[in-house]
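PROTEIN DESIGN WORKSHEET
SECTION A - STRUCTURE
LENGTH: 374
TOKENS:
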């Protein structure tokens, strides 16, 4: 079991030093089990993975440590390996399915008196469900009654569930910043019925900045921290009912609304203009054409998300990540620039959008270009 403490002494001796040594030993131990699970999921060997988890529990590893420090660590590695082109999409899906099966095998005792009731759900259109599942199971291990609603929960259905069950709080998960507009709608809708909302997941920023911007009542960087916060006492009472623009006054310029509303046309027209200006595209096979269209669609999606919260880093971090993924696959990062140029041409009347595109281009080329006047 990994022992954790917030009272680590600066000196070499004393209880803090003992805690540090215990933590390090626990980290080494869980890392060893995580390496073994990684070997099993790489091989697609579900039976070995399940046996391994049984052995880890028999060895004295706590279920929560297995859940978060073994399974969670392996799932993070899956994402890293896919991005580096060392794991296929099929391999990623197999690994995720095995991890999900492993989670289901962990023993959970029915609490004599549940601490309370928590609803855990992914934002609508968010299909990365494992982070929410890790939180749901952590809360169950700690004695909560948990309603785990899974991936892609439409907000009206979430509200209906709240009316039927009356949870003490709702935990909303999202991994993709492109879901922030939907997350904002879900947060305000849940708060409007008098229920507090905690958010988590990469979509809300490593420091929770977008959770605060969108008015969430609490934010946690990981499942263990979220469980600790809920155990510490009730979340703050939700804010009174209010409009989206009250949180994000910059939306009054209508750029987000107009760009989001024309996203399908932007993707289509950008693809066609690329074909016209770059004859080499005519030699693309069907898969290459499909990948190019997908890349353009993702660029537009992240551009609109950045417009929604008025945060350039959402756009630039996506472009940097995409450039790394393309480079790992032998495609130069600068191949993204022509698409940005064509988008900028089409969005000439949207100064915030053009500024975001210019910043993104600078990140990709490391050679800032002069901006046109708005």
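SECTION B - SEQUENCE
RESIDUE ASSIGNMENT:
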């Amino acid at each position: 079991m990994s022992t954790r403490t917030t009272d680590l002494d600066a000196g070499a001796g004393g209880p803090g030093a003992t805690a540090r040594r215990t933590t390090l030993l626990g980290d080494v131990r869980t890392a060893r089990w995580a390496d073994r699970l990684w070997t099993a999921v790489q091989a697609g060997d579900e039976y070995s993975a399940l046996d391994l988890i049984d052995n880890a529990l028999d060895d004295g590893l706590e279920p929560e440590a297995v859940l978060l420090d073994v399974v969670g660590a392996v799932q993070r590695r899956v994402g890293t390996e896919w991005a580096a082109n060392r794991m296929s999409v099929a391999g990623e899906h197999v690994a995720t399915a095995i991890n999900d099966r492993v989670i289901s095998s962990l023993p959970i005792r029915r609490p004599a008196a549940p601490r309370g009731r928590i609803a855990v759900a992914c934002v609508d259109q968010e299909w990365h469900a494992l982070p929410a599942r890790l939180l749901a199971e952590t809360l169950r291990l700690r004695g909560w009654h948990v309603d785990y609603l899974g991936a892609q929960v439409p907000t009206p259905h979430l509200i209906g569930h709240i009316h039927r069950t009356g949870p003490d709080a709702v935990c909303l998960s999202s991994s993709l910043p492109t879901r922030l507009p939907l997350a904002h709608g879900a947060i305000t809708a849940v708060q409007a019925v008098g229920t507090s909302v905690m958010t988590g997941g990469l979509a809300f920023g490593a420091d929770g900045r977008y959770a605060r911007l969108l008015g969430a009542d609490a934010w946690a960087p990981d499942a263990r921290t979220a469980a600790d916060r809920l155990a510490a006492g009730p979340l703050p009472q939700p804010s009174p009912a209010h409009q989206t623009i009250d949180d994000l006054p910059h939306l009054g310029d209508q750029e987000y609304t107009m760009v989001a509303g024309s996203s399908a046309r932007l993707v289509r027209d950008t693809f066609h203009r690329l074909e016209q200006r770059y004859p080499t595209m005519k030699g693309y096979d069907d898969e290459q054409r499909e990948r190019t269209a997908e890349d353009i669609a993702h660029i537009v999606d992240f551009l609109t998300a950045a417009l929604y919260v008025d945060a350039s880093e959402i756009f630039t971090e996506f472009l940097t990540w995409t450039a790394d993924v393309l480079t790992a696959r032998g495609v130069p990062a600068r191949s993204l620039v022509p698409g940005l140029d064509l988008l900028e041409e089409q969005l000439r009347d949207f100064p915030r959008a053009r500024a975001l595109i210019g910043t993104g281009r600078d990140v990709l080329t490391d050679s800032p270009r002069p901006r046109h006047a708005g």
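SECTION C - NOTES
The first strand starts at residue 117 and ends at 122.
The radius of gyration is 23 Å.
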